[in-house]
Amino acid sequence: MFLAWLLALSLGICCAEWSGGLLDQACLLATSTVLVIPEILLGLSFLALAVRTGWFRAGGMVSPGFEALSPWNQARDLAAHLFLPVLVLSLGSLPVLLRHVRTAMLEVLDSPPILAARGHGIPRHRILLRHALPLAVNPIVSLLGLSLASLLSISLLAEVIMSWPGLGPLLLEAVLARDIYVVIGATMFSAFLLVVGTAAADFLLYASDSRIRVMGLK
User: Fold this and answer.
1) Staple partner for 8: which of 97, 148, 174, 210, CB 3.0–4.6 Å?
2) At what angle do helices 22-35 and 2-17 cross, to 10 degrees?
3) Any idea of the CA torsion for 88, 155, 94, 137, to the nearest 10 degrees?
């Protein structure tokens, strides 16, 4: 989630600033392509690429003989196995996040305060980060809360495809074995993430938007 948001904010702000440019068109084409690809097909494609080429570690969390490696090599091996699951999860979330950030920034960049700031000769990077981004933060913060709430449900499929020993395979085995207690526990944890994500978004909106604080006092 951190990687997807980092890329979405960076690319979304750049695409909004240079709307209609080469970077904007390339990002729109790439996100449209990824959006129409099911996540299961995306994961299977990267898994097939890893198996056929050997460029990436496929399956599991560590390699055989992991315990005999040095701490540095253990960290490298773990990072190599983590690369593909993180890539699949990031690419699956990135298109929606990037498009929301781009749309929010485009609406703000045409507003009178930003046009006045441009007229005063304020540097471009300061306008984007100090003026435009705080004005566009409300829909972005709301989306951040939803992405935190859907973190578990999004990761389940990628973990099963990549054979990552996380909650995804555990929940699948529990469903097949009819282990109702594990299924209920995973469902409650997903609901807990939904509550935490929604509450975090509300607190961040309250802290970032003075209009909400004024309405709360009234």
Assistant:
1) 97
2) 140
3) -160
Q: What type of residue sits at position 207?
A: A
Class of residue 159 by CB neighbours under 10 A (exposed 0-12, middle 13-18, buried 19+): buried
Helix and strand numbers, DSSP H then E, in the chain: 12, 0
The pTM (predicted TM-score) of the whole model is 0.78
**Averaged pLDDT score across all residues of the chain:** 80
C-alpha 168/C-alpha 170 separation (Å) is: 5
The answer to whether 98 touches 8, Cβ cutoff 8 Å, is: yes
CB atoms within 10 A of CB 15: 25
Domains defined for the chain, CATH in brackets = 2-217 (1.10.3720.10)
Torsions phi, psi of 95, nearest 5?
A: -55, -45
Contact 50, 58 (CB under 8 A): yes
